[in-house]
Amino acid sequence: MKDLLFKKALFTASLLLLLIGAGMVYTLFDGALPAFDAFGFFKFIGSTAWDPHPDREAYGALPFIVGTLFTAFLALLIAIPFALPVALFTGVYYRGTKAAHIIGAIVDLLAGIPSIVYGLWGFYTLRPWIIESGFSTGGFGIFTSAVVLAIMIIPYASSLSAEFLSMVPNDLKEGAYSLGATRLDMIQQVVFPFAGSGIFASFILALGRALGETMAVTMLIGNTNNLPLSLTATGNTMASVIANQFGEADGLKLSALIAIAFLLFILTALINLAGKFIIKRFNQ
Amino acid sequence: MENTVNNNMIDTLITSNNVRTPLIVEDAILTFKDVCVSYAPGKNAIESVNAAVEKGKITAIMGPSGCGKSTLLRAVNRMHELYDYIKVTGEILLNDQDVLKMNAMEVRRNAGMVFQRPNPFPNMSIFDNVLAGYSLNGIKLPKAEREALVEQSLRNVVLWDEVKDLLNKKGSFLSGGQQQRLCIARAIALKPEVLLMDEPTSALDPIATNHIEELLLTLKKEFSIVIVTHNMSQAARISDNSMFMYMGELIEYDRTNTMFTNPACQKTEEYLTGRFG
Ligand SMILES: Nc1ncnc2c1ncn2[C@@H]1O[C@H](COP(=O)(O)OP(=O)(O)OP(=O)(O)O)[C@@H](O)[C@H]1O
Ligand SMILES: [Mg+2]
Q1: How distant is the Cα of A84 from the closest Cα of chain B, in angstroms?
Q2: Is B227 within a domain?
């Protein structure tokens, strides 16, 4: 009897969560409909227009989709060469030692810092450096945002990867050593293949975080509505354009922003699904 | 004939007071001289082991749980080195070279190890598992040679007929006994001089165990084998010489026949008759 009740409670809780999720998607879609109706779903996605003038009001999501993917993938690219060595250090080479614990704790600390702090650091420290180096005049833009995003996602990618790396059974490591392998060979041929799909999952997760990160990017990307096509270009990501403009938006513009939120939701869901699919393929 | 030996070996064996019946072998593949292993400072898990392991024979290491069998075996291929806190002292000669002074990778290539639990590499195909010793050492073989080596190694462990059509599949779907034979194939593919086996059949059923035992009897023509076993009838069936260890010491070392029919030490007799262990 008690068991049955418990089961029912679990079922209800899961169902409720599912309903909330479905409700969210529905309200997003509902709010986005006017924009999709006015411009057409695919036209909206492919258009670079962003004109709130009442006579020729037109909106498109392309610059922000490009800005999102550009910053997120660039951030991932910058993060990998830092995250992997840290993961190897804490998860394999110095696994279980004091040094690994200290580094692991610092990395976890980095993961807990609120994004506004990263944003401020980017604004007051990184941006002046970039101006000084002559890389860009204003210091805002894709590259600046990507660097800060990379720093933000390194802790996620590395601590999760380290966990997967340290899950490699000792049996296998000793098996490799017993055949005369050096540590490097062992890591390349036994540890990485074993932990590969897990490491991949960590990076997908990190990418997902970079896609949706809002505050720091809003402060650093320059908040322009053009298609960002170079490292020094300013622009907006899907998240930053919403954060930046929804306060004064109404009518069709508000609907366009909600439509962008809907697309961001789809994009992150797709990326996660793709990640899971690849992991499945890996594991076969 | 068994008793014609070089003098210095007699010296080390006779001066050691813990082996009651120091087996004198003529042609030693491995020689332990005052080998101690400690997992914690000031406490030896293995206390001054002296013995010579005969070439081309099967040597069984027996003794109650926790007496140090695995510890002794793992000293040979320097597995202890993988963990900072473990200390090994003394000399272990492989042929006439002190393994503790050799390059560790070279030692491990020459002293293959088979573990208690089968541990094929799950990410590699059966084919690649057999050749793992080569790929892990960065040795590239020509295709024909690789194929011949895989076939020969798998035939040696009587696995070829079962897996010859599945060579590109992962090894992890094989049965436990098949996996263990694959691990033996992986070890012998590197053509080591000695095979170190730590209870290789304890995770297997009687039929698979039987397979492996028969296999060891054929393999000993090519490789010297040291096998840790809890199973006394197994030791009696397959080994030529037997060591009996107790609380970190080598208590008795003799021809298996002699030890089983006429043990010199009371502890050995108690163990062999099942009074403890
Ligand atoms: N990694 C380790 N750290 C600390 N002590 C250890 C370690 N491995 C083994 N020991 C200790 O060393 C002693 C010998 O252990 P060993 O594993 O060699 O015994 P064994 O004869 O192989 O036993 P079994 O038959 O149960 O496998 C035991 O007292 C054990 O508790
Ligand atoms: Mg053991």
Answers
A1: 20
A2: yes
Q: Which domain holds residue B163?
A: 10-272
Domain count, chain B: 1
How many domains, in total, are found in chain A? 1
User: Token match 């007799």: residue?
Assistant: B269
Chain B interface residues facing chain A, Cβ-Cβ under 8 Å?
77, 79, 82, 105-106, 108-109, 112-113, 115, 117, 119, 121-124, 132-133, 135-138, 183, 186-187, 190
Residue A54 lies in a domain: no
Q: Identify whether A143 is part of a domain.
A: yes
CATH at B180: 3.40.50.300
- Whether B2 maps to a domain, the answer reads no
CA distance A262 to B52: 75
pLDDT number for residue B42: 87
Residue in A with minimal Cα distance to B114: A175
Residue B5 lies in a domain: no
Partners of A172 on chain B (C-beta within 8 Å) are 119, 121-122
- In-domain check, residue A230: yes
List the domain range (segments joined by +) for residue A166: 59-283
The ligand that comes nearest to the alpha carbon of residue B84 is 1
Q: Which of B36, B39, B86, B201 to mutate to test the pocket of ligand 1 (most atoms within 8 A of CB)?
A: B39
SS3 labels along B250-275? EEEEEEHHHHHHCCCCHHHHHHHCCC
> What is d(CA A276, CA A54) in angstroms, rounded to the nearest whole number?
44
Tell me, what's the pLDDT at B252?
Answer: 92
pLDDT of B16 higher than 50: no
Assembly ipTM? 0.89
Chain A contact set for B115 (CB, 8 A): 171, 174-175, 178
Within a domain: residue A225? yes
Whether the predicted pLDDT of B15 surpasses 60:
no
pTM of the model: 0.81
CATH of the domain at A252: 1.10.3720.10
Confidence of residue A283 (pLDDT cuts 50, 70, 90): low
